[in-house]
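Reopening: Olfactory receptor still failing for me.
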Amino acid sequence: MEEFNNSRASEFVLLGLTDSPELQIFFFVTFSIFYVMTMLGNCLILLTVLFTPQLHSPMYFLLSNLSLIDMCLSSFATPKMIMDFFAKRKTISFEGCISQIFFLHLFTGTEIVLLISMSFDRYIAICKPLHYSIIMSQRVCTGLVVTSWTVGFLHTMSQLAFTLYLPFCGPNVIDSFFCDLPLVIQLACIDIYVLGIFMISTSGVIALISFLLLLTSYIIVLVTIKGHSSKGSSKALSTCTAHFIVVLMFFGPCIFIYVWPFTNFLMDKILSVFYTIFTPLLNPLIYTLRNQEVKTAVKKRLSNRYLSLGKTTPKYSMQ
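Support: Ran it again with your exact input. Result attached.
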């Protein structure tokens, strides 16, 4: 083992999404636009919730934290992928590769728990409305966010504890645009197929169980909504639908990649693009388009910003 570690690969080669120069230019432009829109959209939601007193409620507090995680999830690999489109040789150091695995599992693990917290918030608001302010206090909301990050950290450390001690002394080519556990551990110099399947599938099973719990909670909420007034029912249904779309977009690719690892790397690459680039972009769109309160607050903030800029613009008169 010492001999293996001494000759450990110092870098990995990333094959990226495509070898076609035309497609690389197209992807560079497309993903650059998506990345900027993702950062601006989520930042807008974060600032809107922060500076709008009407949105200082548990649901929007959790939503603003989701926007923060989405910005992080979109940034751990996307900027490097965009820059690599024009690189002749796409490489990443061993330390950089391990860092990408660390941040990927930190942010995805955190988002899983946060989505469960948001589901819990909607369940209490709709099924136990009289106890909502007591149960979902500021202290509880802060505790849910701290718990989300703690679970994410523990999850990623459990994955790295397995990966760091693997000997990498042979092939160093990764058929993706970033380092992920199923791809990296295949490059180890020892046979880890059974152990690797167990470790990676554990992440998939956790994601699958979390998704089933969320699905169950939303079914209960939808059944409860039937007994509400038409106006309240419509608003609650819109909110829950937005939440569930986010859940489906996030958990779908994760479950496919980690429940059945080492199966279809082309599909894994496509799904990786989806949950690292498209999902963080669609989250703010879904919440702003389907949530009237957020939409109104965003419009008000943008209009106030526009008016303030107009007032500060110097005016010149003809002499």
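The chain has twelve helices and three strands. If you still see a failure, please send the error message rather than a screenshot.
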